[in-house]
Specification:
The complex is a heterodimer of chains A (about 325) and B (about 200).
Chain A: H1 2-21, E1 26-27, E2 38-44, H2 55-60, E3 75-81, E4 84-89, E5 94-99, E6 104-108, E7 117-123, E8 128-133, E9 138-142, E10 148-152, E11 161-167, E12 172-177, E13 182-187, E14 192-196, E15 212-214, E16 221-225, E17 230-234, E18 240-245, E19 257-262, E20 268-272, E21 277-281, E22 287-291, E23 304-309, E24 314-319, E25 324-330
Antiparallel strand pairs in A: 1-2, 2-25, 3-4, 4-5, 5-6, 7-8, 8-9, 9-10, 11-12, 12-13, 13-14, 15-16, 16-17, 17-18, 19-20, 20-21, 21-22, 23-24, 24-25
Chain B: H1 2-20, E1 29-30, E2 33-34, H2 44-47, H3 92-100, H4 152-157, H5 165-168, H6 189-192
Classes of the chains: A mainly beta (about 325), B mainly alpha (about 200).
């Protein structure tokens, strides 16, 4: 007779476990003596609770794979403008927009037939959205009506433009030319100003750099030097300040660093596609924490790519194989 | 233990090294010099671009400043974990290819259906190999000159019955497109497909 009670207890226990699982996630895990810094907010496109598995699946631990939307291919770059999130789809060569309040996903029609759109960024000052196309070897700028206002990339100007970043204070648009191992700087109208970097392993030299971000506070430039497994930081005069990382599977090191972004406290977030996570570093380069494991659950990633942090400290991480963007919130301390 | 692995690894590596050196998968060499990703030169430098260096956590002092009590463990690379299998159709070895082949570092690999319902990928991948369909040969058809792969079945059975990147490509090969066999006279296609 008693085994029935055992099963009943087990069943109730499992149900209880299951119900607590759906609560919001915090990082680091809340416990005494540790301050919570980051909160999981949700994902784009929005899906209702994905746990549709039946009782037996749940008993035997069979995890159902997510139903992936067909219309999304392989997202890479992301940028948030107010409540709208724009991201590039490298498989279908489409730019999507997603409204966080209405939860509507739209593909935007631009007057340019993209072939491989990757990088995307926005100038708040000029209200221009910049998109790089690695196959067309050009960078385009569109106004809010979707009209083409800037086009950069004469024949031979870019080998492969990938990462983009805008510095509104200094009127600069940064373009990472991955195959030229160089960062090219333009004004917001698309006139060439200067460039820095060449192939090599010294400070200020790159080996296939991909992504870039500009700190809104101090105008520092953060570049992921993907095929040398490191991140380099420069000041606005392009002087090398800091290098983070190196090869290895330990926290604090990288295997395939991609997207990079900085929050309002200057903490550096680096996405790693091989580790399926993003690591967080202090402005001085000390390891603070990491978030993410391989998988399809909340705060789990498969081949993450771009990252963007907006002025409200919302963190948008592109989760390319899971065809979604996961959103986190950095919980800033009042000083 | 770490050094044991290195020795085993080195004994195999010279063969592969000779192949990969002259291909696009040699990301280390520039102007006749190996770029240094934090380890002392040597042939290992070419391998670690994909075979990520495994570092023993006890050798290095690392802590998470936000949570110093959190135990420091090695990351799972390419989702390769003994404890749980993450994707049923895609192997970690294929994920490794995709970490670079994203359109930014290397040519973009896309798969699955496009928005219009047509395949955006040239050849089906991560699908089950079914002999008989699409003029596919049976598993026991012999392969000649395909290195260690002696039968068609070896191309998928060594994986999970599905076509992976490694079914057709060997990243260490010197063949065009890193194919497992040169495609002169469609010899590559005819490895699996009946004429």
């Amino acid at each position: 007779m008693s085994y029935k009670y055992t099963f009943l207890c087990l069943f109730i226990g499992l149900l209880f476990l299951k119900s607590t699982k759906g609560q919001s996630l915090y990082f680091p895990e809340p416990k005494p003596g540790v301050e919570v810094r980051i909160k999981y907010l949700g994902q784009i496109p929005h899906t209702a609770k994905e746990e549709e598995s039946n009782f037996f699946d749940f008993l035997f631990g069979e995890k159902k794979e997510l139903e992936l939307p067909d219309y999304l291919g392989k997202p890479y770059g992301v940028v948030a403008v107010g409540n709208t999130v724009f991201f590039t789809d490298t498989a279908h060569a489409i730019i999507y927009s997603y409204n966080l309040s209405t939860k509507k996903l739209k593909d935007i029609h631009f007057p340019i037939p993209f072939e491989l759109p990757i990088g995307i960024t926005f100038s708040k000052k000029r209200k221009i959205i910049y998109i790089s196309d690695a196959k067309l070897q050009k960078v385009f700028g569109f106004n809010v009506k979707g009209q083409l206002v800037v086009a950069i990339g004469r024949k031979g100007e870019f080998k492969k433009p990938v990462g983009l970043a805008v510095d509104d204070d200094l009127n600069r648009l940064y373009v990472v030319d991955t195959f030229d191992h160089r960062i090219k700087v333009y004004d917001l109208d698309g006139n060439y100003l200067f460039g820095f970097g060449k192939r090599g392993d010294g400070p200020g030299e790159f080996n296939y750099p991909t992504n870039i971000f500009v700190d809104r506070k101090n105008n520092n430039i953060y570049v992921t030097d993907t095929q040398l497994f490191r991140v380099q930081v420069f000041n606005k005069d392009f002087e090398h300040i800091l290098t983070i990382g190196g090869i290895g599977d330990l926290p604090g090191r990288f295997a395939r660093p991609k997207g990079i972004a900085v929050d309002s406290d200057g903490n550096i977030y680096v996405v790693d596609a091989a580790f399926n996570n993003f690591q967080i570093f202090s402005p001085e380069g000390d390891l603070l924490y990491y978030i993410g494991n391989p998988g399809f659950g909340q705060a789990e990633f498969l081949l993450p790519a771009g990252i963007y942090i907006d002025e409200k400290d919302r963190i948008f991480v592109v989760d390319s194989l899971n065809k979604r963007i996961q959103i986190f919130q950095y919980l800033k301390k009042e000083k | 233990m770490f050094f044991f692995y290195i020795i085993v690894f080195l004994s195999f590596s010279t063969l592969i090294y000779a192949g990969i050196e002259d291909t696009k998968h040699n990301l280390a060499e520039y102007n006749g010099r190996l770029l240094n990703p934090n380890i002392e030169g040597s042939q290992l430098a070419l391998c670690i671009w994909c075979h990520t260096l495994n570092i023993n956590t006890s050798f290095v002092e690392v802590e998470f400043k936000w949570d110093p009590q959190k135990p420091v463990e090695n990351f799972t690379v390419y989702g390769q974990s003994k404890k749980k299998k993450i994707l049923k159709e895609m192997l970690p070895a294929s994920l490794a290819c995709l970490t670079c082949h994203d359109g930014a570092n290397a040519p973009n690999i896309t798969f699955g259906r496009g928005s219009s319902g047509v395949s955006v990928h040239s050849h089906p991948v991560f699908v089950v190999y079914r002999p008989g369909t699409y003029y596919l040969k049976p598993f026991n058809s012999p392969l000649v000159g395909w290195g260690k792969k002696n039968f068609v079945g070896d191309l998928v059975k060594d994986y999970n019955g599905r076509i992976q990147c490694g079914s057709c490509h060997d990243p260490h090969s010197t063949n065009k497109l890193f194919l497992r066999h040169p495609n002169k006279g469609s010899m590559f296609c005819m490895g699996c497909h009946e004429l």
